[in-house]
Amino acid sequence: MGGLACALAFGKKGFKNINVYESAADLGFVGAGIQIAPNLVRVLDRLDCWKGSVIERDATNVQSASIRDGATDQELAHVDMPDIEQKYGFPHCTGHRASLAGGLYDACKKLDSVRFNFGVTFAGVEEFGQSGKVKFSLQPRQGDPYTVETDILLGADGIKSATRYSMLKALKLDAEVEDTGQAAYRIMLTREEMSPYPDLLALLDDNGVKRWIGEKRHIIAYPISSHNIYNLSTCQPDENFASAPSAMYTTKGSKVVMKQVYADFAPIVQTMLDLVPEGEVCEWRLRSHKELPTWTHGRVALVGDACHPTLPHLNQGAAMAIEDGATLAEVITRVPGGGSDPEAVTKALKVYELLRKPRTTTLVDLAAFSGRTLHLGEGKAKEERDRQFAAAKEKGQPVPDKWASPDVQKMIYEYDCLKDAAERFDELYAGLT
Ligand SMILES: Cc1cc2nc3c(=O)[nH]c(=O)nc-3n(C[C@H](O)[C@H](O)[C@H](O)COP(=O)(O)OP(=O)(O)OC[C@H]3O[C@@H](n4cnc5c(N)ncnc54)[C@H](O)[C@@H]3O)c2cc1C
């Protein structure tokens, strides 16, 4: 997501020679739903990648959030969201990852300046470009490795980022990937599969997001693909990966185990889990990273999950990656001297970090905090949480599920990363020695 956004944003700013290197043979979309929050729609709109795009066409405009007790299906809090667009200028949508990535890709393909190189794996940075060019090595699927020179290298290579590894190694810094102790099943049910069940069809046809919560577990669910697919994303203690090699991130799960994990959830949830075809249970390890001391070195910078991986409980991971890409293009466009001075570019990349790191750190921490609150077991803390859920039924009150809380929505949704970059670039740049 971050890589596509960088390519599109730089292309739109008129940069002439943009290469995207992707290790997969094609965009290879892992099917799953994604929430497309107003702050993300705002950036897509600025990149001419919203109105009339496949992203907008396939999106569901979210009108409400319902937080429910997993065991009883009783509603703990209900947040009406009919006025999100009116408040923030852009709607809150849900969509398919394939539409979001596909829309960004289609927009990139309209630009002559952007070239995609699939089946090519980034292998490491050789020079970070403090004085001369940045040099890095690539390994194509077929053929020998080769070195590429560039003015700027942006590492949007996800949670397992080899760019981050290269950078930290060069800087002799230690910051490790961390286990969150949580894992997720990602499930998509088709209209056809749901059609025998009127209560499930009602979920599919609704413009709402549902979250069923229980001790140490929850399931978030919403319609995607023009209400033709119901997307469920779960979160439970990581049992299967705990003893697995650290490089493992996804695995085929067992339907029996999945059903056991949610055995005490309400019948409506059981019916949906029963519909998952045998052999199609996929479990994701939810990993995180110690906060990085730096996101940039020379003229190399990290983007998205490579520098701020997050638990998905605020649904902002892709949004933050795409905001990073748009901010980078905004910042680099403003480099004094038009980019001819490597030192000025290095400083501008630091401005990007100064603009983005405090905000992404806040959201990453808030997502983890919200997860802890959602997963509380019996006791005083849960009683207090449920009291707050009940109070939140009144319009405008804070909701313990931070994703659905109007105060948190305001903080996240009204933020305009491009305006922020434009307004603060000069001051932040001047403050760097
Ligand atoms: C269960 C779950 C639910 C989520 N729900 C939401 C949501 O609702 N809303 C939201 O905004 N976010 C959500 N996210 C988070 C979101 O998916 C990620 O934060 C986002 O994809 C990060 O984008 P990225 O570009 O940084 O990394 P990625 O999307 O991981 O992309 C990295 C790319 O780099 C490529 N790559 C990796 N290594 C190399 C290499 N060495 N050489 C070349 N290419 C390489 C990969 O193949 C991949 O294409 C969710 C995540 C999970 C796990």
TrEMBL record:
Keyword set, alphabetical order: FAD, Flavoprotein, Monooxygenase, Oxidoreductase
InterPro entries recorded: FAD-bd, FAD-dep_Monooxygenase_BioMet, FAD/NAD-bd_sf
Pathway annotation: Secondary metabolite biosynthesis
GO MF annotation terms: FAD binding; monooxygenase activity
Domain annotation FAD-binding: ranges: 104-366
Protein family according to the UniProt entry: Belongs to the paxM FAD-dependent monooxygenase family.
Name of protein: FAD-binding domain-containing protein
Native source organism of the sequence: Pseudomassariella vexata
